[in-house]
Amino acid sequence: MEEEERMTLDELLKSGRQHFTKLKRDEHNGKMFTAEIQVFGYAELLYLISDLIKAVKAVWEMEEDGCNRGPMVIPKADVSTILELALQLFPFHEAEFLDEINDEIKKRIMSEDEDGQ
Length: 117
Description:
Helix content: 55-70%
Low-confidence stretches: none
Strand order of the largest sheet: 1-2
Number of domains: 1
Order of helices and strands: HEEHHH
Oligomer: single chain
Number of strands: 2
Shape: elongated
Mean pLDDT: 82
């Protein structure tokens, strides 16, 4: 494999900075990170928190009853809100970067295998 096709470490680091955007290092505690969610205001944030609590409560009650109450019932709006939150927290950009790293590693392994034969 030709040298130009290989990603340099500097290119890899630059690409990483562009892709690793979901977690932000906490300014006060460098060991911690924050993940942001987008809401239209305090009311929506409170409804979101309420929906999460309702969902956990439903699961908790089901477990306490030994799952004998039949299917768990969580209102449709609550599930929708929780799924929207999960989508916001998914690290899609980070996954794209990990795919780039994976491709680069495979290229280098193939190159080493070709050079070794």
